[in-house]
Design brief:
- By secondary structure, the chain is of the alpha/beta class.
- The protein is 31% helix and 25% strand.
- It is built from nine helices and 13 strands.
- The strands form two sheets. A nine-stranded mixed β-sheet has the order 5-4-1-8-9-10-11-12-13, sandwiched between helices. Strands 3-2-6-7 form a four-stranded mixed β-sheet.
- It starts with a strand and ends with a helix.
Amino acid sequence: MKILNFGSLNLDYTYQVSHIVREGETILAKEVGLNLGGKGFNQSVALARAGIACYHAGLVGEEGLDFYDACETYGIKTDYMKTVTGRCGHTIIQVDEKGQNSIVLFGGANQKNSKEYVDEVLKNFDTGDIILLQNEINELPYLIDQAFAKGMTIILNPSPYDERLEECDLGKISVFLLNETEGQQMTGMTTPATIVAAMAASYSNAKIVLTLGEGGSIYHQGDEELYQAAFEVKAVDTTAAGDTFTGYFVAGLYKKLPVKDILITASKAAALAVTKEGAAKSIPFMSEVELFNTD
């Protein structure tokens, strides 16, 4: 069984600020940093650091060649990545003194996927393989349809949520990994319990994982529902917390571990990630997660 993450690769411009800028306001940034990121890349890094050597597919612009070296360093397979003309996807990230963030995303190369490229990648995968998807790339409806036709297990992190997701046949998704905001946007519900209930009613065959930040996480499938509390840490930067949780959760599914154990490990990994600045570089190794003392 192989794991393919068909996802975004972004250059992250991160600004340390006293507070998230308000409408009409100009503020001074204390620091600025440039890092490799993107939900797709971050989740591949999380998978790799959880012990799973996944394949990454996606497009980078001409200034994004560092992604290839980074993937080699992290242990991510780049057989199906490509470079295209033009700009990389990039983000402008504000991180305030409490570690909270605000993100502006420019799609760049991530929006240049073609059906031909999708077909070229997916011909190398088969029934039972796992495909991990987010919503920072184009051709998502086609990707879902083609992966489903091949019998792949489709895991979707519907982030960022927008109207393009309404073009997708979400009935083909095997696992949803979403946060509370995305859950509200998908269902119109406002509490964790009602979000989970609405998702389960609409997608009765899927596993639902709802992350709640400091409120922990909820897993639901059929008659089974589990709650996992978050681990208390001092947050420095929450940028890659959700991606860390996703990568570690998918790694646990790949290893066929009990769901309760997967939730604990993913929650520990996400907690450790927020104690460091940056996106991909903040994602902990499995060895760090195993040593994390939660007492």
